[in-house]
């Protein structure tokens, strides 16, 4: 293990990691020397190509395993098929926006399953191996919406608040065993999914790109700047470091000041 590759010899699983925040986190962990298992719910040649390209770029072992995070048994099977892990990043998530009286019940169930219950299943499956090795890092990708709320996002806000509570509970259960459990709470992050929303917002509001980003999309983010996937990845690597060995059961906001309001 070298200072430039502090996670060499560790194995990380990142759920929902073929794009956006998950991919950025996986790249940061690979860059720090960790072997990485990528995951999504598809099984396309492109998914495996992402893993191969990352392996080639960072000279680490990277593999892709398909698992549907809405299915508890598949969440647990992912951990088993990967052979366990030292670092578990629960990142998979979906969103839906609607008034609560119009919120489709099946969508509520799916968001709670993917955004919250999947973390319960993966953590339960990963912990025995971490305990046996006396080392582990569990990082749950929550959200500013794990600490505050917005209208029309009932399922997402409920799930992310629940994920913060799960983080604290797990941290207490593993305290003193060389395992930490924390949540990262990003605000708006410039991902391909968010980038794709900008032209629609420009047309809807009759604004140019910079104005719609500053006045509409980042209205609740005091810095008026997106967080980046690289920043979220760097925060993840820090939480896996020895410097963070006594940081557990807490949230780290990467939100440009959103939750300071």
Automatic annotation (TrEMBL):
BP GO terms, sorted: monocarboxylic acid metabolic process
Keyword Oxidoreductase applies: yes
Record key words, sorted: Oxidoreductase
Gene3D superfamilies: NAD(P)-binding Rossmann-like Domain
Keyword Oxidoreductase: yes
GO MF annotation: an example: 3-hydroxybutyrate dehydrogenase activity
Database matches in InterPro entries: 3-OHbutyrate_DH, NAD(P)-bd_dom_sf, Sc_DH/Rdtase_CS, SDR, SDR_fam
EC number, UniProt record: 1.1.1.30
Pfam families (alphabetical): adh_short_C2
Superkingdom of origin: Bacteria
EC class of the enzyme, as a word: oxidoreductase
PANTHER family assigned: 3-OXOACYL-(ACYL-CARRIER-PROTEIN) REDUCTASE, 3-OXOACYL-[ACYL-CARRIER-PROTEIN] REDUCTASE FABG
UniProt record similarity statement: Belongs to the short-chain dehydrogenases/reductases (SDR) family.
Protein name per UniProt: 3-hydroxybutyrate dehydrogenase
Lineage: Bacteria, Pseudomonadati, Pseudomonadota, Alphaproteobacteria, Rhodobacterales
